[in-house]
């Protein structure tokens, strides 16, 4: 792994940004590849259709690279990318009118149980108010740390913590309600 002058390790992201700064044409593809799966999972929670989610991911990276000259890398690229993806998903949802999601979604891909669990999680999270939903998705679907969630949402860290606590309490109550005979 490459090192900075202070002896600290560079992240894979930092190494890719160094390549970008040196004009390496393959670096943009490496950056997109590094985050493609994460952004796709994120978009799947915000648009009801896999092909639209894939379109949202492509549009996210197109927007990021279109305005890349204005971005200064300070180690917060992941948070920046989620902000762009959130805006793209909002734009897509404004343009479309959706039919309600079917109760039973057929999955033909490998990992049927994983997909069913993800769909159960999605339906449960949809019950939350929007301000709580986004935090839960970023924390548990995207596995972002609270500090990263604060950057993505623009909220103070304590607000993120309290909203996450409130969301978890509401989800717990809903699960308990569903388990009652």
From TrEMBL:
One Pfam match: Sigma70_r2
Record-annotated RNA polymerase sigma-70 region domain positions: 31-98
Keywords: DNA-binding, Sigma factor, Transcription, Transcription regulation
Domain RNA polymerase sigma factor 70 region 4 type, first and last residues per copy: 119-169
Family of this protein: Belongs to the sigma-70 factor family. ECF subfamily.
Name of the protein in its database record: Sigma-70 family RNA polymerase sigma factor
């Amino acid at each position: 792994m490459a090192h900075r002058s202070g002896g600290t390790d560079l992240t894979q992201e930092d190494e890719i940004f160094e390549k970008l700064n040196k004009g390496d044409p393959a670096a943009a593809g490496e950056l997109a590849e590094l985050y493609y799966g994460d952004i796709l999972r994120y978009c799947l929670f915000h648009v009801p259709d896999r092909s639209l989610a894939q379109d949202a991911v492509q549009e996210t990276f197109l927007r990021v690279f279109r305005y890349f000259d204005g971005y200064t890398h300070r180690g917060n690229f992941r948070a920046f990318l989620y902000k762009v993806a959130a805006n793209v998903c909002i734009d897509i949802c404004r343009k479309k009118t959706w039919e309600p999601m079917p109760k039973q979604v057929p999955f033909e891909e490998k990992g049927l149980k994983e997909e069913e669990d993800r769909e159960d999680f999605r339906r449960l999270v949809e019950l939350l108010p929007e301000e709580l939903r986004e935090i839960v998705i970023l924390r548990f679907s995207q596995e972002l740390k609270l500090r990263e969630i604060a950057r993505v949402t623009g909220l103070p860290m304590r607000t993120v913590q309290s909203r996450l606590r409130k969301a978890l309490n509401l989800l717990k109550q809903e699960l308990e309600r569903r388990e009652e005979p």
